[in-house]
């Protein structure tokens, strides 16, 4: 099944042609502002509506992020060998030598950075390099702590596309990647039975029609379950948390007016616009005040 959140708090299923939505909200009696989380935590079954006629066209609604405010967005750094190579070669991407999740762990992105595919990416500074990164992500369907690799696979509810937008520089990753609109998630969450092998999916990102990133998830250093297993050591991953698995080579800058097309096999595609604020990072003045 392919779940979508639309028009703020409606939950639906995409039809097979991807053009219509079967509205589950009233059919299942969902009342939460986070209907997908309510669905995952409750005793609901949407499978009987898979073949129902569409209630609305996708073109007539606003597609939102599947989870509006996940408790956590957990992100794996440098998880494709070819991106590790380009990151080491380009000091704008990272000033570190090679490292892995095992070396430095994961990082967190602010939940407030999450948007859906109907919104634009907003570049916060006109004088900083802002890069795109396409990633396979997933939504957790079960609470997970100290889980095994097998348990990790079982606890994933479904898979989605995530754009990890990044300011390049020396600031901490969680700072540079947490500006508003810097975590684009969508267009849907696809259950594992329809995705197939998540470690064998083609992904592609194009900017203004030019393909910049093209890879298969088989090239990940750590699998989806590996990331969950590590992140759950001593920490509770909650229902609705979003976990993203890193990006392949080809990251590059975005500019005002760009159009970003992102596609992952068996999940779908989304098109997102880019706009820029007229703010210079060089002019930002952080005041230091004495103690009262």
Automatic annotation (TrEMBL):
It comes from the Archaea. It comes from Haloferax denitrificans ATCC 35960. Coiled coil: none annotated. GO terms for biological process: small molecule metabolic process. Pfam families: FAA_hydrolase. InterPro entries: FAH, Fumarylacetoacetase-like_C, Fumarylacetoacetase_C_sf. This is 2-hydroxyhepta-2,4-diene-1,7-dioate isomerase. Residues 72-274 form the Fumarylacetoacetase-like C-terminal domain. Belongs to the FAH family. GO terms for molecular function: isomerase activity; metal ion binding. Keywords: Isomerase, Metal-binding.
């Amino acid at each position: 099944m392919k779940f979508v959140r639309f028009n703020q708090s409606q939950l639906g299923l995409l039809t097979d042609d991807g053009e219509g939505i079967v509205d589950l909200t009233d059919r299942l009696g969902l009342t939460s502002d986070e209907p997908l989380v309510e669905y995952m935590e409750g005793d609901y079954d949407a499978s009987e509506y898979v073949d129902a006629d569409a209630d609305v066209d996708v073109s007539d609604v606003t597609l939102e992020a599947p989870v509006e405010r996940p408790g956590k967005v957990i992100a794996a750094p440098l998880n494709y060998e070819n991106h590790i190579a380009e990151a080491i070669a380009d000091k704008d991407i990272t000033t570190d030598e090679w490292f892995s999740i095992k070396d430095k762990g994961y990082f967190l992105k602010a939940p407030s950075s999450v948007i859906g595919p109907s919104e634009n990416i907003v570049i916060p500074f006109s004088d900083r390099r802002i890069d795109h990164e396409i990633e396979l992500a997933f939504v957790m369907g079960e609470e997970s702590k100290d889980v095994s690799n097998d348990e990790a696979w079982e606890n994933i509810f479904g898979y989605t596309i995530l754009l990890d937008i990044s300011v390049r520089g020396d600031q901490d990753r969680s700072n540079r990647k947490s500006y508003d609109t810097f975590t684009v998630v969508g267009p849907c969450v696809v259950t594992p039975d329809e995705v197939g092998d998540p470690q064998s999916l083609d992904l592609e990102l194009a900017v203004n029609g030019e393909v910049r990133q093209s890879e298969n998830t088989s090239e990940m250093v750590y699998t989806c379950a590996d990331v969950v297993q590590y992140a759950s050591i001593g920490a509770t991953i909650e229902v609705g948390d979003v976990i993203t698995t890193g990006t392949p080579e080809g990251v590059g800058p975005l500019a005002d007016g760009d159009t970003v097309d992102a596609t992952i096999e068996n999940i779908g595609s989304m098109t997102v616009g880019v706009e820029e604020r007229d703010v210079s990072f060089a002019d930002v003045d952080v005041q230091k005040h004495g103690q009262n």
